[in-house]
Amino acid sequence: MGQSLRVAYGEALRDLGAENDKIVVLDADLAHATMTSIFKEAYPDRFYNFGIAETNMMCAAAGFSHSGLIPFVSTFALFGAGRAYEQIRNSISYVNANVKLCLSHSGLCVGEDGGSHQSIEDIALMRVLPGMTIFVPCDPAEMKKAVRAASEINGPVYIRVARPICEDITTEDTPFIPGKANIIRDGKDVCIIAAGLMIPEAMQAARVLEKDGIDAAVVNMHTIKPIDSECVLQMAAKCKAIVTAEEHSIIGGLGSAVAEILAGKSDVKFSRVGVNDMFGKSGKPQDLFNAYGLNAENIINHCKSLLSKEI
Amino acid sequence: MNTISLEEKAKQIRADILKMLYTCQSGHPGGSLSCVEMLMAIYYKTANIDPKNPKMETRDRIVLSKGHASPTLYAILADLGFFPREDLWHLRQIDSHLQGHPDMNKTPGVDVNTGSLGQGISVAVGMALAAKHKKEDYQIYAIVGDGEIQEGLVWEAAMAAAHYKLDNLIVMLDHNGLQIDGSNDEVMSLGDICEKYKAFGFECYKVDGHDIDAITYAIKAPISGKPKFICCETHKGHGVSFMSDQFGWHGKAPSKEEYERAVAELGVEL
After folding, report:
1. 20 to 30 Å CA-CA from B248: which of A279, A280, B196, B254?
2. What is the value of ipTM here, to two decimals?
3. What residues form DSSP beta bridges with A269?
4. Tens-digit pLDDT profile for chain A (311 aa)?
5. What is the residue range of B244's domain?
6. Measured between alpha carbons, how far is B71 from B67 in angstroms, rounded to an integer?
7. Cα separation of A193 and A202, whole Å?
């Protein structure tokens, strides 16, 4: 039936809060956008607003973790991973602080607010930090599992929280093992490795390719770090081509991570779908996805192009 | 165990700082020498800490936000027995637990990693708020530099400290007036710092930052419902005549001659 990932995030926090009184939630005047307001309503004594001061919130979160609490920190991805990058780097990641960064409004799906608010670099920024775990959930059920998994990891975790309503792709029973990719559709010609909002586009692409006689696999790479290298290499050995798809710059994100695994280990044909080293702009999310090629059609083109080279 | 006066101990700590910096030929003498008495007031007179149990739950937390003054912190921690004194002479060397800037995961007695200016005070605010959250009554000390408070983050932290009425937080400013490129006034004027902290909602004190009793008095002054700010008036490079009030000694190690002259001035046997 679908639900916004941020609402799923807020509900997951509230559920976790009921079980674990060490969970505290920090926000920077965006509780009603990040949906930490759902937790705040249930546990007002465990919710702290830091005002529009993201850098202080990040360091303060480290202070909470040093005191034995488990802070979940939320703001927009750009103002967390971007503005407060060095605070995350030195006060959280460098000391392996047990802080969970759940940053919303990532990618082009922010839509109308435009390029100033569309984070296309957050995964790249978090991925270079040693010890950082990165989850990019694709639907509400996966979001809830990611939040729980984050609370069970002793160290910093980044969860990318997309804004739109997402259709259900996984079910409550779908396993979510950090660092273990889910092959959600098997295939032998081309493997589309995607994450987050690009999963439905990848599935749509696979269905269209099937009609054209191309057998496409789809991998849900919900954990970007530590990435499931084994799965990538296994699919590279099995398929003739690999195409990555992400709602992020093609520099530094999922596509780069997969390229790093393949380099020197596989001669599989490889191509990346993502934001091509440019900033976003205002528009309706779906119009932006189409304008920037973050859709099934572009994934199909990449797959066919690689396979035609193969012949 | 020999008991010596705190005045004598201050000289010993200054000599240790100089030996550390001379040995590794790097580090920050000026701002290390200026905050000796500030840290001594905390570690020897007021803070509840246990060198045998550095992670004691109920301990006071001490955050050297001006992390480049780590030699002062290390000399005191070694003197108190958190780790062997011999470790000091390996400061900044590969495989030493004594990093250029304090590291909580490597050095016993260090509560927070600092060095990136402005972050320590902000982490301290989080720790003070967490202490309130847990209904614990330990104190959080944060020592900031005057160049450091040019960082906007320091004021974000100040705003939050007052908003959450963190009367378990003591912010102590090492006001030596100098930073890397010159005086504060030349580089970026700080204005009336106490008035600024007052306006942010702090209870403010101004003391001679080389007078341990005065600092101790200000730390112990009772307070309720608001954070405390102690402006400690200090001299950069204090205790060594040729380093005193010289911004050029911010981040320069002494030569052999300079080191020997400085230690002779302090009158300390090494």
Report:
1. B196
2. 0.96
3. A241
4. 578 999 999 999 999 999 999 999 999 999 999 999 999 999 999 999 999 999 999 999 999 999 999 999 999 999 999 999 999 999 999 999 999 999 999 999 999 999 999 999 999 999 999 999 999 999 999 999 999 999 999 999 999 999 888 889 999 999 999 999 999 999 999 999 999 999 999 999 999 999 999 999 999 999 999 999 999 999 999 999 999 999 999 999 999 999 999 999 999 999 999 999 999 999 999 999 999 999 999 999 999 999 997 54
5. 6-266
6. 9
7. 8
Is the Cα dihedral A208, A210, A213, A219 positive or negative? positive
β strands within B65-148, DSSP E: 140-145
pTM of this prediction? 0.96
Please name which of B76, B16, B17, B78 lies closest in space to residue B47, comparing C-alpha atoms: B76
What's the rounded Cα separation, in Å, for the pair B86 and A216?
64
User: Burial level of A260, CB count in 10 A (0-12/13-18/19+)?
Assistant: middle
DSSP code, position A225: E
ω into residue A137 within 30 of 0, thus cis? no
Question: Which pLDDT score is estimated for A290?
Answer: 98
Restricting to A residues 50-109, those with a Cβ less than 8 Å away from any Cβ of B are 50-51, 53, 55-56, 58-64, 66-69, 86-87, 90-91, 94-96
* CATH number of the domain within which B58 lies: 3.40.50.970
Residue B73 forms part of a structural domain: yes
Q: What would the DSSP string read from start to end of A89-149? A: IIIIITTT---EEEEESBSGGGGGG-TTT-BSSHHHHHHTSTT-EEE---SHHHHHHHHHH
Q: Which two tokens stand for residue B78?
A: 């070694």
A contacts of B111 (beta carbons < 8 Å): 66
* Residues of A recognised as catalytic: 54
> A43 touching B, CB under 8 A?
no
Is residue B127 one of the residues assigned to a domain? yes
- Determine whether the interchain pair A51/B159 forms a contact, defined as Cβ–Cβ distance below 8 Å: yes
HSE (side-chain half, CA atoms, 13 Å) at A118: 25
Residue B1 within a domain: no
Contacts of B121 (CB under 8 A, 6+ apart): B63, B65, B142, B144, B148, B153, B154, B157, B158, B171
Question: Which of A54, A152, A22 is closest to B130 using CA atoms?
Answer: A22
Partner-chain contact B130 A56, CB within 8 Å: no
Report domain extents, chain A: 3-166, 182-310
Rounded percentage of chain B residues whose pLDDT exceeds 70: 99
Give the Cβ contact number of residue A244 at 10 Å: 29
Integer Cα distance of A237 and A191 in angstroms: 10
Tokens of B198: 């007052």
Rounded Cα distance between A108 and A284, Å, is: 9
Q: Does A155 touch chain B (CB under 8 A)?
A: no
- Which CATH number is A182-310 given? 3.40.50.920
For residue B67, being part of any structural domain is answered with: yes
Domain A3-166, classified CATH 3.40.50.970, yes or no: yes
Return d(Cα B33, Cα B69) in angstroms, integer.
8
